[in-house]
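Structure (tokenized):
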């Protein structure tokens, strides 16, 4: 048995999102300021620059996190690295090198709770079952339920990596469960494209996540190289097929 005081009833911590076992807490103000940084902290809070933390209630499923993300855990919680032998470790190391994720993602299981370290980034809670397979931009993964399958996928062609600046390899998640993503922008600024046998063209790497069912290529914005050069647009990222795209237009 355990009891948490000055946590769920803390007036300075607000739950801004909740899905499955996850809750996102936002610190309304930085109460640990000094006279030298009080003004900066005040204006940061006014401009939505606040610390946020991911809280997970374990039990129904385990929680997989980025390495080093845990701040505290309470109750009968165990941690496993998920590494099974040297071969598995080398495979995870190779995957981490190309996706900018941690080599070992700890798995927390048990009958307790888990809190991750604070971040100034925005934490998005995504129901992966609504996507089928979701492909993530580098460094976006924060945590997920262990019911989800992680896989490193390669771009279908070199142009999508070199010209599209999205990286040749990306982490994908599939199955039923909730994923927590660290986004540079809040959900309110994200545009969601939901297409069926259609095409989306984006000038730049502003897509932070997309369905694995989509074909991602990089193409000239115009019919010719000269036309693309004259228009000032050059190459664009192209997503074809049926699926979803999350785009951060203010990046």
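Design, position by position:
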């Amino acid at each position: 048995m355990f009891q948490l005081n000055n946590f769920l009833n803390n007036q300075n911590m607000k739950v801004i999102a909740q899905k499955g076992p996850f809750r996102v807490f936002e610190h309304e103000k930085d109460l640990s300021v000094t006279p030298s940084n009080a003004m900066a902290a005040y204006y940061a809070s006014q401009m939505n620059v606040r610390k946020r933390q991911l809280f997970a209630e374990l039990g129904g499923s385990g929680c997989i996190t980025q390495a080093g993300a845990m701040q505290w855990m309470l109750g009968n919680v165990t941690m496993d690295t998920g590494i099974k032998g040297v071969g598995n470790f080398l495979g995870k190391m190779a995957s981490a090198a190309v996706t900018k994720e941690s080599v070992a993602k700890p798995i927390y299981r048990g009958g307790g709770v888990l809190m991750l370290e604070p971040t100034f980034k925005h934490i998005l809670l995504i129901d992966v079952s609504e996507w089928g397979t979701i492909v993530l931009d580098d460094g976006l993964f924060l945590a997920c339920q262990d019911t989800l399958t992680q896989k490193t996928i390669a771009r279908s062609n070199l142009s999508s990596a070199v010209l599209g600046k999205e990286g040749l390899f990306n982490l994908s998640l599939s199955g039923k469960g909730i994923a927590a993503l660290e986004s540079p922008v809040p959900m309110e600024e994200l545009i969601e494209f939901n297409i069926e046998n259609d095409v989306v063209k984006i000038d730049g790497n502003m897509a932070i996540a997309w369905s694995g069912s989509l074909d991602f290529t990089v193409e000239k914005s115009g019919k010719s190289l000269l036309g693309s050069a004259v228009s000032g647009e050059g190459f664009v990222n192209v997503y074809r097929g049926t699926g979803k795209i999350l785009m951060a237009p203010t990046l």
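Reviewer-requested clarification: Confidence is low (pLDDT under 50) at residues 85-92, 225-232. The first strand starts at residue 13 and ends at 19.
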